[in-house]
Amino acid sequence: MNKQQQQEIVSTPHTRREGQGKESEGRVTSLLFICLGNICRSPAAEGVMRHIVEREGCDADFLIDSAGIGGWHVGQLPDHRMRRRGAARGYDFCSRARQFSAADFQRFDMILVMDRENYYDVKRLAHNSDDVQKIKMLPDFMTRHPGQPTIPDPYYGDIADFDFALDLIEDACEGLFAYLCANNH
User: Fold this and answer.
1) Phi, psi at 99, each rounded to 5°
2) Lowest CB count within 10 Å: 15, 117, 148, 180, which one?
């Protein structure tokens, strides 16, 4: 992501969901992570990002969620392999799958997708150029995996694929958090 693209991200006030983080007044940066079915990559990114903001003591400043392009898994927990691999690293991936909707453009400052297919699927639902500006490639925030253009879907792979996806997600979420802090989000 180049500097101009990064500067286009604007944080706006949002209402915090009941039970999410500490109650606080002020600006909340809202992040929505997207993958195909919302059972592998996006709930992992949601869990990793929640872990980072809690670790840094700023969880009240963020609204973090995830969704899928398709509705096949709505209501389900993340894939058991991703939950196990995440638990081995100290994460709790316990969100329930939901499907992305065009209304999410109004609720979130940034919509972070895992790959180009996700990008184009979300972009098709955008109402205007402001909505399109909110869509960002999560891999663009990676710092330790240069040249890795996507976070590959591990669903049809083995445990090593889930570990690789988590490596990339951790890298990207740390980079995203550093970017948000550097830009007063």
Assistant:
1) -95, 140
2) 15
